[in-house]
């Protein structure tokens, strides 16, 4: 019979849904918007049985303006979540082992206008962010 040992220092994660509406100023020609995103996260505070994580999704939105030239908008979307950890005591050292966009629910142009509805005035997005942490071993 094989003895199974419990994981002494498990990786644990939180997930959070974020939603953002970005104004497109000047407006975009409908159908020309593209975007890229990155996630950054850090440990904000360790409390008894909780680890507070904060971060930002950095977005770059590029589109074609009415005059045919390109425009780029940078938008940071903050987020926060917490992770239950029975082994967490105030100010224990934890590290972020990973932060990613788990799923993009939607990302699309919105709020159309102009004489033929050919202009987009907003870009709307919703995504699920996942952040994982691990306790730093002492010694």
Outline of this structure?
With 139 residues, the chain is mostly beta strands. The chain has no helices and 6 strands.
What does this molecule look like?
The chain is built from no helices and six strands. With 139 residues, it is mainly β. The chain has one domain. A hairpin with a 5-residue loop joins strand 3 and strand 4. The protein is elongated and about 65 Å long.
Question: How many domain units?
Answer: 1
The structural class is mainly beta
Quote the beta fraction.
Answer: over 45%
Reading the helices and strands in chain order gives EEEEEE
Per the principal axes of the C-alpha atoms, what is the gross shape? elongated
Question: Within the largest sheet, what's the order of strands?
Answer: 1-6-5
Biggest pleated sheet: 3 strands, antiparallel
Q: Kindly provide the radius of gyration, computed on alpha-carbon positions and rounded to a whole number of angstroms.
A: 21 Å
Structural descriptors:
single chain, 139 residues, mainly beta, three-stranded antiparallel beta sheet, 6 strands, 0% helix, elongated
How is the secondary structure organized here?
Blueprint (H helix, E strand, L loop, with lengths): L11 E18 L4 E14 L2 E15 L5 E15 L9 E20 L5 E17 L4
Antiparallel strand pairs: 1-6, 2-3, 3-4, 5-6
């Amino acid at each position: 019979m094989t003895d199974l040992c419990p994981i002494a220092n498990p990786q644990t994660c939180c997930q959070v849904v974020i939603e953002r509406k970005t104004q497109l100023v000047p407006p975009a020609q409908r159908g020309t918007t593209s975007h890229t995103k990155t996630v950054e996260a850090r440990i904000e505070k360790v409390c008894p049985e909780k680890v507070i994580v904060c971060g930002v999704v950095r977005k770059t939105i590029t589109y074609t303006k009415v005059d045919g030239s390109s425009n780029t908008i940078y938008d940071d979307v903050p987020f926060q979540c917490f992770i239950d950890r029975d082994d967490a005591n105030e100010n224990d050292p934890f590290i972020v082992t990973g932060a990613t966009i788990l799923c993009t629910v939607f990302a699309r142009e919105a709020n159309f206008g102009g004489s033929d509805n050919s202009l987009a005035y907003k870009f709307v997005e919703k995504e699920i962010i996942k952040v994982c942490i691990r306790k730093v071993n002492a010694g």
